[in-house]
């Protein structure tokens, strides 16, 4: 599995961010090809002294190739272009292959 994570610093208008994100952005995300699942939260905490974020998003793809194809698709490009409509604080995008742990 390959995970895509987006960290959002605090926007200029938090209410607009929440409303737009849920009503407009996430429906676009749901149309991305190859997307297996996604999760998000507006309740992000950080350890004392560390940078905090306003929101987090994570998406699961079968592998890096599936994620890349999804992001380069017309739907993925539409999602990327839409970020400017709500994320006035910017966005930090990271991705990585997921390794299973042993309990």
From TrEMBL:
<feature type="domain" description="EthD">
    <location>
        <begin position="11"/>
        <end position="88"/>
    </location>
</feature>
<dbReference type="InterPro" id="IPR009799">
    <property type="entry name" value="EthD_dom"/>
</dbReference>
<dbReference type="InterPro" id="IPR011008">
    <property type="entry name" value="Dimeric_a/b-barrel"/>
</dbReference>
<protein>
    <submittedName>
        <fullName>EthD family reductase</fullName>
    </submittedName>
</protein>
<dbReference type="Pfam" id="PF07110">
    <property type="entry name" value="EthD"/>
</dbReference>
């Amino acid at each position: 599995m390959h995970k895509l994570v987006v960290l959002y610093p605090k926007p200029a208008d938090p209410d607009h961010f929440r409303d737009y994100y849920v009503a407009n952005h996430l429906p676009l995300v749901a149309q991305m090809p190859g997307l297996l699942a996604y999760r998000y939260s507006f309740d992000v905490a950080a350890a004392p002294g560390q940078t905090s974020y306003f929101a987090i998003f994570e998406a699961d793809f079968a592998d890096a190739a599936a994620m890349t194809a999804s992001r380069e698709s017309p739907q993925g490009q539409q999602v990327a272009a839409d970020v400017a409509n709500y994320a006035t604080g910017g966005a930090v995008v990271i991705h990585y292959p997921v390794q299973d742990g042993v309990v």
